[in-house]
Amino acid sequence: MLNYVWFFLAALFEIAGCYGFWMWLRQGKSAWWALPALLSLVLFALLLTKIEATYAGRAYAAYGGIYIVTSIAWLAVVERVRPLSSDWIGVGLCVVGATIILLGPRFSTP
């Protein structure tokens, strides 16, 4: 369960970091937005190393599902755009997929 906390925090910092560059390069905000964005992206990378997984690729694949959940939450909370029902269906599928990827090795026989 702690993996999901790390995934969520990593996603939050990755989205915040990318959002800083989005604001600078797409919304015409000051280039100073890049500094906290870079710090946020460093924190994202460090947080991903906390995931309990034997292989980085599997951790990153599972993280992708949680990233999608966090992105839709970001859309709703930060950008104040109401997610579509199709967004929520996709979120549900991604969480199931991330859980299967993360827990699958525990149930596999060597």
Describe this structure in words.
With 110 residues, the protein is mainly α. It has one domain (2-107). The protein has four helices and no strands. The radius of gyration is 15 Å and the shape is flat. It starts with a helix and ends with a helix.
Q: Which structural class fits the helix and strand makeup? A: mainly alpha
Largest sheet: none
Number of individual domains: 1
Radius of gyration: 15 Å
The SSE string, one letter per element, is: HHHH
Taking pLDDT < 50 over at least 5 consecutive residues as the criterion, the unreliable ranges are none
Shape: flat
| Mean pLDDT across all amino acids | 90
Helical stretch tally: 4
Percent of residues in β-strands: under 5%
The share of residues in helices is over 70%
Main location: membrane
Transmembrane segments: 5-25, 31-48, 60-77, 89-107
Protein name: YnfA family protein
Keywords: Cell membrane, Membrane, Transmembrane, Transmembrane helix
What are its keywords?
transmembrane; mainly alpha; cell membrane; flat; membrane; 110 residues; EmrE-like
Task: Sum this structure up briefly.
Its main location: membrane. The chain has helices at 2-26, 34-48, 56-77, 85-107.
List the helices and strands and how they pair.
Elements: H1 2-26, H2 34-48, H3 56-77, H4 85-107
Pfam families: UPF0060
Protein name: YnfA family protein
Keywords: Cell membrane, Membrane, Transmembrane, Transmembrane helix
